Structures are given as C-alpha cells and as structure tokens.
Amino acid sequence: MATVENQGKKATHQEQEEIIDVTMGLVARLATKSEIRKFIETKFGKGWRQADRYAARAKAELRKRNSGLDVEAAKDLGLSTLFDVIRNGNPHNRLMAERRLSEIFGYNAPVDYRITTPPGSPLQMEDVTQVPVIPKDRMVQILGAIAATRAAGVPIIIPGPEPGQNGNGHAAGNGGANGNGNGALH
Q1: What does the radius of gyration of the chain's CA atoms come to, in whole angstroms?
Q2: SS3 for 125?
Q3: How far is CA 45 from the centre of its chain?
Q4: Cα 9 to Cα 181: distance, rounded to the nearest angstrom
Q5: Is 123 part of any domain?
Q6: Which comes out higher in pLDDT, residue 113 or 63?
Q7: Tally of CA atoms within 13 A in the half-sphere of 66 that contains its CB
Q8: pLDDT digit string (tens) for 8-64?
Q9: Contact at 8 Å (CB) between 56 and 26?
Q10: Residues 6+ apart with CB under 8 A from 128
C-alpha cells in the first residue's frame, strides 16, 4: 500500500491496481469528486490531479466490466447500488439516491413550469435583435470629439449611474458604467 511518505513518487503497478480497485468502490457508492480526492490523498498520499486520473481510470474499468450486462441486470445493479447508498452513504448521497429512486418509480408529483406576468396582463415579447442606427455624420462627429479630447490629454468623463443604480440596470452596485467606479475612460 502507498503511504504519505511516498507522495510525489510514482506508484508501482500493484499500488496503482489497489488504488483503482478502491476508487471503483468509491465511484460505485456515488462518492463525490471531493470525497474521492480526500480519500486518495489521505490513504495513498496522492495529489488531487492523480486522484482525478485514478477516478477516470476506475470509471473506465467499471464501464468495461459492466459492458456485458443486459438491460435487466443493469437495472438491478443500479437499484441495488442506490439502496446500498441509502443504507450506508453519507447524508448528501442518501438524499441524492432517494431523489433518484423517486424519479425512477414515479413518486414525484408532476412539475408544471409557468412563465407569469402581473395579473391580467399578457406576456409581452420584444425584439431585442435590432441595433440602434446612428447616422454616419453623427458618428464621425462623436469620434472626432473623442480623438480631440484624448489628444489634449483630458480624461473623458461618462456620467455615472443614477443614484441607487449600478449602471447595469440593477440597484446597489459596485461602481460606474465602465466598471472602475469613477466613470472615466482612460
């Protein structure tokens, strides 16, 4: 077995197989990525990147081993895994397994999604793909004024947001319209 003093050293083939076997058990019990990382780090002294590689190899090995299952055997295996997680898993995994079983067996109430508007008013759709057109002569005038102001070394001041707004259409924000808080372009 690899130990913490072996950290940073390449694992032997036997150690790799042991880590992959243990990781397959964790993956089969629906352990989270952080739980797998923490377990491999504490038990085998491997870093998070190596833990992720071992988890990927364990998942591939599980797929390879279970590729010959027929549909009914796969369902039975999946259900037994979920029941095992409910019996032995941590609270988060138990809840996730219970939710999954509820979905499988149809215990959840139907879900109805509705887009609502204020009472009595219809849903209004607005075409936001149209870009406002600025006449060419006005654009040339604006760009000329910006160039002259920059050439004179004067900072360009853009009015800040209205009081109580953040410049992005939301109340109480973090600065001016250009994000640096003072409304100036440099």
Answers
A1: 30
A2: coil
A3: 27
A4: 50
A5: no
A6: 63
A7: 16
A8: 678 888 888 899 888 888 887 778 888 899 999 999 889 889 999 999 999 888 888
A9: no
A10: none
> In whole angstroms, what separates CA 24 from the centre of its chain?
24
CB-count burial class (<10 Å; 0-12, 13-18, 19+) for 13: exposed
Of residues 58, 1, 65, the one with CA closest to residue 30: 58
Pairing label, strands 184-185, 156-157: antiparallel
Core vs surface per residue 85-96: b (16+ CB within 10 A) or e: bbeebeeebbeb
**Residues 77, 44 share a domain:** no
State pTM to two decimals: 0.41
- In terms of residue numbers, what domain contains 78? 69-113
CA proximity to 56, closest of 20, 83, 6: 20
Count of domains observed in the chain:
3
Amino acid (1-letter code) at residue 113: Y
CA angle 134, 137, 142 (to 5 degrees): 75
